[in-house]
Structure formats: C-alpha cells, structure tokens
Amino acid sequence: MTDLDFYTFTQSGKEAWIEQIKKDLKGRDYDQTLSSTLWEKIKVHPFYTKEDLNKDTAEYRFHMDSIMPGDSARTWTNLVSIYPIEETANKEILHFLQNGAEGLVLHLEGTENLNRLLKGVQTEFISTNFLPTGETALFFRTIQEWTESLTLTPNMLKGSFLWSPFDDLFRGSSSFDQGLDFAAKAIHDYKEFRELFPVTVNLARYANTGATGIQELAYGLGEVIELIDKFSKKAISPAQAFENLVFHTAIGDSHFAEIAKTKALRKLIVELARNYGVHLQMESIHIIASTSTWSKSPLDKNTNLIRQTYEATAGILGGANSLWVIPAEEKNASALEKRVARNVSAILKEECNLDKVMDPGSGSFYLEKLQEKIEQNVILKLQELEQNGGWLKSFENRNLHSEIRKSRESSQKKVLADSEIKVGANKYLAKDSQEEYILFDPLVEKDFELLPSRATYFVEQNNLSNS
Fold first, then answer.
1. Most Cβ neighbours (<10 Å): which of 64, 302, 331, 362?
2. Which residues are within 8 A (CB) of 166 and not within 5 positions of it... i.e. 6 or more apart?
C-alpha cells in the first residue's frame, strides 16, 4: 500500500506553470511562441488545466444503448460510396456489404433501376442513403417507384436522403418554395419509416468549400432555422422537423478541433430545438461524418490515405453515428483506394478499440474548453446571421458566398506561402512525385455556387500541368 505522504509535492496553479514556462523561454514571447489561433477566432493555449473549465464535465451519449446482447458501448455505421454503373454496381454493392460495409451512399441521377441495383440487398439490415446528382423531381420519383414496387414496410428501410431544398439553390434553382414542397412531401410520404431521414442538413458543403468550423456550424444551423420557419407554413411543426433531419458534417485535418466541433454540433442542435420548445434527446440526433475533400490533394495520394484515417478517428471521437470515408479520387478511385476507405472503420473498431467507450474525450481540459469556445463563437455568428435577415437573405445577397470565399482564399494563400504546412504538397514532397503528369482542374464558380475546393489549390495551380 502506498503511503499518501509519499507524494509531498506542493500543488501549483496554472499561473505558476505559466511563469515557469516564461523563464524557460529565456525572453521569447509566451503567446507568440506557444499559442496559436484556430479558425481566425479561437486562441489556443499551449496547455489547459481544470482551472480553465467553468463547470463540471459530463459524458455525452451519442446513441441509444443497443438492444443486442454483447454489443459494444459505442456503435456507428460504416458507409461506402456507390456511383452506379448498371452492369457492375450490384456486384460491387454485394461485395462491399460482404466485406465490412454496413451502409451505402448511392449517387443517383434518377434514371437508375433500383430493383436491379439493389437486387439481393436486405435493406432492413443496412443503412441506405440516397444522394441526388441530377434533377430532384426525377430523384424522388425513382425512389418512390422503387419503394412501391417492393411494398417495403417501415422497418425494411433506414438511412437518409442526402438532400435538402438548399441544395437546389446552390445548383441555380430560382424557386426555394419548390424545394420546400419536395421536402414536405417526403416527410409526409415516409412518416412511418422511423429510421429514414427525408432531409439532410448539409454542413459539409461549407467545410469542403473552405469555410472555417465556426462558419460551417453557423450556416448549417442557419439552414435549420430557415427550414423550421418555412415548414410552419406547410403544417410541419418544429418537433416534426427535428425528427426528420439528419446532419452531415465534414471532418477536416485539425484533429482535436474537429472532435470538439462535432460534439459542439450535437449540443447546439439540442439547444436550438429547446428554443422552439422541442425537448430533443442528445442521443436521438443522427450525425453523418464524412472525411473532408478540402484537406486532400492530388500531389500526394499516400498522405491522403493517412489524412482520411485520422479524420475518421476524429469523427468517431466526436460522436458520428455514420462514418463515411470518401476516397480522395471519389468516383475515379481505384479498387485499392475503395478497399482502404472501407476498411478504416474496421481498424478503428477492431484495432483501435474506439467502440469500447461512448465518449473517450469527455473530461479532457483541452477538448472541453475548445468545445466551449466553438459553441460561443457559433452562437455569436448565428445571432449576426439572423440579425441580418437570416440564411436565405444571406444567400440571396451573396454575403454567405463572399465570406466563405474569403476564408477559402486566406487558407489557400497560407499554404502557398508555406505559413501553413500541408505534408506532401508544400512540405516533404514525395520523392517519386509525378506532378508533371497530373492535370490541374481550375475552379470555375458561378455567383450562386459554392464548389468543393482544396487548401492546396494555389500550390497545385503553380505545380501541375494545365494541358
């Protein structure tokens, strides 16, 4: 038994540690040397203690307890991307589901034969997520015809429609009301399907176009406010709206910040619902976390594989209910890249044991303080957005676009100037780099669009071939 008097060290507060660090720095400025700024708003200190926390911490619950005996404390669904090619897609889907995938993200133009595409797939045991790439009306008609042809019962289909009326605005639609009609109809048509979410709040669109984490959450929650206000005119209550929403966020390469951001999102959703008089349980919220496209670069494919792994880790630690590891090459990914993306989730479960504890980040002084600061800044940004007329007004006058493009360009210039390091792009380039054989695809964006880009865009512009 250890004698308690053995540890005779005098306890030191944070200020005492700071003073000691300043002595060790031998005249160098403490803040300039050891502090940094996250997302242009949040000052990050070199260390944190319990003194930084204003209240006791509590473990988050990211989902309901499993009813299956022997299940792990933490569960999530492993999603894979499917770009249907009629001749091979069904075979590919079945192969993925037999080798680690637990859900699908189907990129649909609206002309696909879903009976043929999903032949042999037992949808009651997986998550089926539909992402439209073509005309919205055609997309919904295709799904409706498929569900009616199979006479699916409510327990036989779970997943989401990775779509919202805001998506059509970013594609150039002049009518927001038509998108609202599609959303309201989907909520009505699939109201018996309790595990199918007809509308997705796509926060990832902002992250993948260069927005900061604060902008991503603020504009995403601004969409929610706009939806609820407009839904009230279509006899859809705030409670119904929240029940039918799924939230899609993109996880970037600021590892700890992304953990805190994802947890902050869940808490802010609960608080927003409370403002509408809706009591929303934290564990009832469904968050899809995808790996970022903003953080990847064609300059170094191997580094992309590493990034998608620690981004996935941050997504799980932050509370994602569905993990969507997107191959950097997306539709053009090789069989190996697809396999690696599919297996990340298995590694996080079977080798990293991230499924053993519900909320491993709970109680971390750094993460708790970071989350608090993120929440405060998002609320301030959201208040500013609403004071200026709300999300739709910001879209129409293009203030939203201007702000995000400014953040995007700022980040890209930092990478170009080497003040922000991107391994494989502006630092530690691969020795066998084949830059001269990779074509540079310039970003051409209409005023209403926010197209995905990359932090390394300017570096690629300077180094890649244009012909």
1. 362
2. 179, 202, 223, 226, 391, 395
Per-residue confidence at 463, pLDDT binned at 50, 70, 90?
Answer: confident
Task: Please name which of 260, 179, 170 lies closest in space to residue 208, comparing C-alpha atoms.
Answer: 170
Report strand pairing: 196-197 vs 245-251.
unpaired
CATH superfamily entry for domain 77-371:
Methylmalonyl-CoA mutase (3.20.20.240)
State the DSSP code for 357: -
Q: What is the pLDDT of residues 366-388, one digit of tens each?
A: 999 999 999 999 999 999 999 99
Q: Over pLDDT 70: what percentage of the chain? A: 96
Give the model's confidence band at 69: pLDDT under 50 very low, under 70 low, under 90 confident, else very high: confident
User: How much helix, strand and coil, in percent to the nearest 5, is found in the chain?
Assistant: 50, 10, 40
Terminal-residue alpha carbon distance, the chain: 74
Does the reported pTM lie above 0.85? yes
Pairwise CA distance, residues 317 & 109, whole Å:
34
User: Torsion over CA of 214, 59, 18 and 43, rounded to 10 degrees?
Assistant: 0
Residues linked to residue 104 through DSSP beta bridges, in sequence order: 80, 128
List the single range of 84-88, 188-192, 207-211, 217-221 with lowest mean pLDDT. 84-88
Q: Which long-range contacts (CB under 8 A, 24 or more apart) does 306-311 make?
A: 307/253, 308/341, 308/344, 309/344, 309/347, 310/253, 310/255, 311/251, 311/252, 311/253, 311/255, 311/258
Using alpha carbons only, give the angle 408, 409, 414 rounded to the nearest 5 degrees.
105
Which residue, chain included where needed, has tokens 């927005």?
211
**DSSP letter (8 states) at residue 80:** E
Mean pLDDT lowest for which of 54-68, 122-136, 278-292?
54-68
Q: Domain map of the chain by residue range?
A: 4-52, 77-371
Which of these, 165, 167, 170, lies nearest to 181 by C-alpha position?
165
State the SS3 of 304-356.
Answer: HHHHHHHHHHHHHHHCCCEEECCCCCHHHCCHHHHHHHHHHHHHHHHCCCCCC
Residue 300's nearest CA partner among 425, 439, 454, 453 is 425
Beta strands 36-38 and 322-324 are unpaired
Q: Are 100 and 75 in contact (CB under 8 A)?
A: no
Position 431 scores a pLDDT of 65
